[in-house]
Amino acid sequence: MQTETKPKKYELKTLGCKANLYDSQLIEAELQSRGWLPAMPGEAPDLCVVNSCTVTDEADKQSRKMAKRAGQANPDTRVVMTGCGAEVAPEKIAGDAEIDFVVGNQSKNRLVELVLGAIESESSANRERGIRKGVLLGGVSDYSEIISRHPMDREWATPESSFLLPPAHLRGESGRTRAFIKIQEGCNSFCTYCIIPYGRGPSRSLASAALVAQVSTLVAQGIREIVITGTNIGDYGADLSPDGKPQLENLIREILAQTRLERLRISSLDPVEISPELRAIYAENPRLCAHFHVSLQSAHSKVLKLMKRKYSSVEMTDTLRTIAELPAPIGGVFAGMDMITGFPGEGTEEFEAGVEALRALPWTRLHVFPYSEREGTPATRLPNSVPKSERVRRAKILRDLSLERLKDVHARVLADFRAHGRLLDRVLIEGPVKGPDPARIYVGGYSSNYLRVVLPVASAEEAAGLENQVLALKPESLLVDSNAGDVAFLAAR
């Protein structure tokens, strides 16, 4: 009698950026193509992959702690560390007793092949219960030194071999209603606080024809909104162009002209990367969502120079005022901005001047991070370090300012609806969410200009039927989450 083999189970834990989320989708797709299934809650997986972040020392610690917990929870689970942490310091990670394999970003596109091959080649004698050994796979090694250029001895995967398109309706942790496509990988900027150029390698782009084909495939699968992402998407196409100039605007025009995609959203850009040509595309095509994620980091020119950013407060001011004038649905252009507080050299005068500058400018929300040292980066050697308690204090000031601004934007939309009946247009419903009444069922989504909406429904069946639908909704009241610094509309149909 032939016994049925149980399918192997995996668990995937993703930390950090959208590029990591995209990479995790590819890992899941490969595992599922080989018959693996995602482990259910409470079920011990055969394999746990931790896709790490190492942007700060704290992020690095969280990634390693997550991998250690997975190994401690079940000694039979094979634990793999990948991502930027695995690329930057693989030998250090391999020393953790709970980690079996380390695969850097150079070889992440071959992770499943490398790990399963290594498991199959082991003899039973080499795998005693509860005893682990950190094996480096794919040839990754520690950086001998951190300098402001990419070393020439690292072989990074080409976009054609690693920027694949995950299949629709992935089962597991990384499946999402909104689809992401990765157009670019790596960074050449070497900001003084950042380790990511070493974790992701030099900037390299996938040709526009392949990306347009990916968008068309997703549209055919029913996807209505796509977010283009990468490590530094403002550099897109510079490596493909004869004159070395970025080609992001050309790519956006091609996607809009050659596909039937309803909504295109762009992830993080520096102020100077929001060019006049890009703003013109926003102005003439509402399919490009009126939503900017600005990688600002500081509102003061002195601090920006210490960070080695490529712009000053002058460019910041011009960019924010210009994009605020673009056409947009009710609520206006959404401008979210990343901010670091307490960077070395940011004195009280610089911080307060930056706050006053922000108060006078048009924007919607701040994503605030107290400066966190990352070992090996030049910023750790800068003088005039700000005490951690002061970094936290400043972060609270900016978060309070952000919540104040976000509430004001939403209150004006609500007043406009009550006075003139203007609806929240083009809200894409993404799925079930928590609402103010635990006894009721809610779905949630975002308008094209990224205003969050919570909608009560009568049943789970109605909730399922609304998923991936685009609706015009009536904003009825505000839901304010002070702890998360977030505001949403409670809406009605």
Describe this structure in words.
Helix content is 34%, strand content 22%. It has 493 residues and is an alpha/beta fold. It folds into three domains: 9-137, Methylthiotransferase, N-terminal domain (Rossmann fold), CATH 3.40.50; 159-416, Alpha-Beta Horseshoe (pyruvate-formate lyase- activating enzyme); 423-492. The strands form four sheets. Strands 2-1-3-4-5-6 form a six-stranded parallel sheet, sandwiched between helices. A five-stranded mixed barrel has the order 14-15-16-18-17. Strand 9, helix 9 (248-258) and strand 10 (263-266) form a beta-alpha-beta unit. The model has no long low-confidence stretch (mean pLDDT 92).
Distance between the termini: 59 Å
Principal-axis shape? globular
CATH architecture of the largest domain: Alpha-Beta Horseshoe
Strand order of the largest sheet: 2-1-3-4-5-6
Largest beta-sheet characterization: 6 strands, parallel
- Could you report the average pLDDT, rounded to the nearest whole number? 92
Oligomer: single chain
Unreliable segments of 5+ consecutive residues: none
Helical stretch tally? 15
CATH topology of the largest domain: pyruvate-formate lyase- activating enzyme
Number of strands: 18
Q: Which labels suit this protein?
A:
493 residues, alpha/beta, 18 strands, six-stranded parallel sheet, 34% helix, pyruvate-formate lyase- activating enzyme, globular, 3 domains, Rossmann fold
Offer a quick outline of the entry.
This protein has 15 helices and 18 strands.
